[in-house]
Amino acid sequence: MNVRDGNAAAGNVVAALRTLLDPAAVLDAAETATRPAGIWRGDTLQAAALVRPRSTEEVAAVLRWCHQNAVTVVPQGGLTGLVHGADAGPDQVILSLERLRAIEDINPQQRTATVQAGVALQRLQEAAEAHQLMFPLDLGARGSATLGGAAATNAGGNRVIRYGMMRDMVLGLEVVLADGTVVSALNPLLKNNTGYDLKQLFIGSEGTLGIITRLVLRLREQPLTHSMALVGLDSFSHVSQFLRHMDRSLGGTLSAFEVMWQDFYTLVTSPPAAGKPPIPQDYPFYVLVESQGADPELDPARFERCLAGAWEAGLLADAVIAKSEADCEAFWALRDDVGQVLNGGAPIIFDISLPITEMEQYTRALTASLAAQLEQHRLWIFGHLGDGNLHLSVQVPLADYERLRPVVEQAVYQPLAPFRGSVSAEHGIGLEKKPYLGISRSETELDLMRTLKQALDPQGILNPGKILS
């Protein structure tokens, strides 16, 4: 069944959904069109209706009705995604998790949190901190990104090198399937080896197999020490050697290893950016290195000894050590000031991963390829190098954006194939990367994904067209 904005069918959908929920929880097409499509975007939402359930049971009622009437549903969280994974059309229903925002329980002894899917990441971080605990996932969009969305996209972020992706922090889930069936597997145990780990089907599935409504998440003890430095290096070889040196020398406390190529560091430490360069802009590579520990007397000294060892080994060209939490925040502010890529043109954003040993060859070849194909562009490279993830931003003139986008995508994605790299390290696939999924996934893997989709959503009503056609 297709419903079209403004016709009788759309009106019937709105009327039917208002019988299932509080009528104020259902917006019609005109009301939906007043809401922004995302925090990074300038357009507005398009849909036949937008529903805002308050419970798993209400989500189930909506999906049951949509399944029975063959109405397609697009789930939405904090709308912080970058791959158009939550885009809806005028003939679809948007199911927003924005009203499922309760932190139901924090268990300090078990070190778990039970939350609804619409809870913002930063809210859980702050709630855990009140119990001297931490939820280690961290993103620049922490104030808007929701925990359900983070699980649905298997979000990564700044400290994957130590704590892993969102997948590593989820103990249990409650999920509503396409036909309204509720699968409540809110496991609180770290070890539960009882057959298929069903939650893994839904983590990273971008709402195409089921809608996550509640989660049990693993918390960690809050670190008592926080040591950081920003260093300049004169070669990529020294970057990779420095990573190994710090990881080995810090004895398991390395929590972040962020690399900025010179052009990006210059961008975020020059006007109109607010940041100032803690060290000169002369080096080809910059690393933000962080350690979190538990011994206020010994940890800072050990961190400085590790840096001194790297200096004596000839790995570092320059360095500055954070002396306060304000210094740490200032260092992170440089790395997180990605908005500077918007100045002066239209950025095309990528999050790729490949073996660290291949990064220098790949980035040099990409720089040459873009220079040969584009008359006017800027390339910035930065990212979570410690876990193999690079972020690329290729800025082109706004007037040429649509014409040049496929050219740039081919230049970025195709060379990943011989390295067995990934076209998506942490942002997901959505609509944007679907044409390139075959670079990173075999046809056998794609066929198995289609089999799972057919088994769990035979009518194809959940987030249709995302990831797979």
Task: Describe this protein with a few key phrases.
alpha+beta; 469 residues; 15 helices
Strand order of the largest sheet: 15-12-14-13-17-18-16
Helix content: 25-40%
Structural class, by secondary structure, is alpha+beta
Poorly predicted parts: 4-8
User: Could you report the average pLDDT, rounded to the nearest whole number?
Assistant: 95
Determine the strand fraction and express it as a percent band.
15-25%
| Principal-axes shape call | globular
Report the major sheet.
7 strands, antiparallel
**N-to-C span:** 18 Å
Radius of gyration: 23 Å
Q: What is the number of helices?
A: 15
Count of DSSP strands = 18
Structure, explained:
By secondary structure, this protein is an alpha+beta fold. Helix content is 32%, strand content 21%. The chain is built from 15 helices and 18 strands. The strands form four sheets. Strands 15-12-14-13-17-18-16 form a seven-stranded antiparallel β-sheet, with helices on both faces. A five-stranded antiparallel β-sheet has the order 5-6-10-8-9. The chain has a four-stranded mixed β-sheet with strand order 1-2-4-3. Helix 12 packs antiparallel against helix 13 (401-413). The longest helix has 18 residues, at 356-373.
